[in-house]
User: What shape does this take?
Amino acid sequence: MSPYPNPSVAVRPASVVNEEIRTLWKRAGGLLSPDDETTYQRLLVEWAAAAGTSVRPAA
Assistant: This one.
């Protein structure tokens, strides 16, 4: 699965994605599981696309 959003899918507003990121961190208690980390990376890329910025991929 590509970490980059599908360009044919509508971009959600950055505020919506940001709230999902905050909820993920709160639910995880500040320590992300491997599955949560994958979700976080996807959301981060989605947020950057919605915010009109870029993110540096994890090494």
Q: What stands out?
A: The mean pLDDT is 85. Residues 3 and 42 are 6 Å apart (CA to CA). The chain has two helices and no strands. The first helix runs from residue 14 to 28.
